[in-house]
Amino acid sequence: MQIRKVTKYLLEKWPLDLKEEWDPSGFSIKFNLSEPLRSIVCAIDLTKEVFEKALEIDANLIIIHHPFKFEASWDDEDIKAPYKRSIYQKCKEKRINVLAFHTNYDNQYYGTSYQIIKKLGLENYRQNYEHNYPNLVNYKTTFNDLVKKIKTTFGFKAMRTNLHKDLWNNEISKIAFLSGAGYISEVNAINNLNYDLIITSDIKWSDWIVYKETKANILEISHLDEQVFADDAYKIIKEKFPGVKIELVHINEPYWNI
């Protein structure tokens, strides 16, 4: 089987015209797609660990969520992510193609935020919303119980919230999930709908100030929530191309709470 048979299928399933303008999804590294497919690795990011797995199983296609090459040139990429150059050179030597599906996957109806609520067993509580990226659920629980559910399901250790401790055992029901780093404009729009809790990642200081002033209740979880992409991609490829050798690599949170 040629490499292009798998990549064409995935690009038709998650078309690049759905990605945001700033997002360099697509091929971060590309060779002749007519070459025979040897095996595939799926992961959230291309790290040394993921590359080593590709070498181990003789993979020539790596499917990731976050683009490996974000900058216009590899020289620019070196400045922000110097570890990538070595992996890039080794991928060239081994002719390993690297294909990313980022916001074009996020913006699918069954995209990243949906996969998160599905993993939490909340997909049947999903509410209609004008955009696919945020997933809104109507599910009665408490903040404490929801945090426990997320920690148990995903194994996350680091979380932050601006919800006062006195409210942690109060009932909540209107909950929004914005996978990865949710856009502040989207968070503000959902807050205007009087949601009890908005869950997202990578919140910067100025955004915390906005959420404080606008009384938006926030739970910040690890960006690793988007690892559900790798799980979904692995499952889809496995089912569509049952004869293909494929491995799934899970990455751990690269930090500790102190």
Describe this structure in words.
This protein is an alpha/beta fold and 258 residues long. It folds into 2 domains: 3-106 and 226-248, NIF3 (NGG1p interacting factor 3)-like (Udp-n-acetylmuramoylalanyl-d-glutamate--2,6- Diaminopimelate Ligase, Chain: A, domain 1); 112-221, NIF3 (NGG1p interacting factor 3)-like (Udp-n-acetylmuramoylalanyl-d-glutamate--2,6- Diaminopimelate Ligase, Chain: A, domain 1, 3-Layer(aba) Sandwich), CATH 3.40.1390. It has 10 helices and 11 strands. The strands form 2 sheets. It has a 6-stranded mixed sheet, with helices on both faces. The chain is globular and about 60 Å long. The N and C termini lie far apart (49 Å).
Count the DSSP helices: 10
Widest sheet: strand ordering: 5-6-8-9-10-7
CATH-scheme architecture of the largest domain: 3-Layer(aba) Sandwich
Write the element-wise H/E pattern from the N-terminal end onward: HEEHEHHEHHEEHEEHEHEHE
What is the CATH topology assignment of the largest domain? Udp-n-acetylmuramoylalanyl-d-glutamate--2,6- Diaminopimelate Ligase, Chain: A, domain 1
Give average pLDDT, whole number.
98
Are there runs of 5+ residues with pLDDT below 50, and where? none
The percentage of residues in β strands lies in 15-25%
Measure the end-to-end span: 49 Å
CATH homolog superfamily of the largest domain: NIF3 (NGG1p interacting factor 3)-like
Q: For the report, how would you describe the main beta sheet?
A: 6 strands, mixed
- Indicate the radius of gyration in whole angstroms: 19 Å
Structural class call reads: alpha/beta
How much helicity do the residues have? 25-40%
**What overall form do the CA principal axes indicate?**
globular
CATH class of the largest domain: Alpha Beta
Structure summary, number of beta strands: 11
Q: How many discrete domains?
A: 2
GO molecular function, one term: metal ion binding
Protein name: GTP cyclohydrolase 1 type 2 homolog
Keywords: Metal-binding
Organism: Mycoplasmopsis fermentans (strain M64)
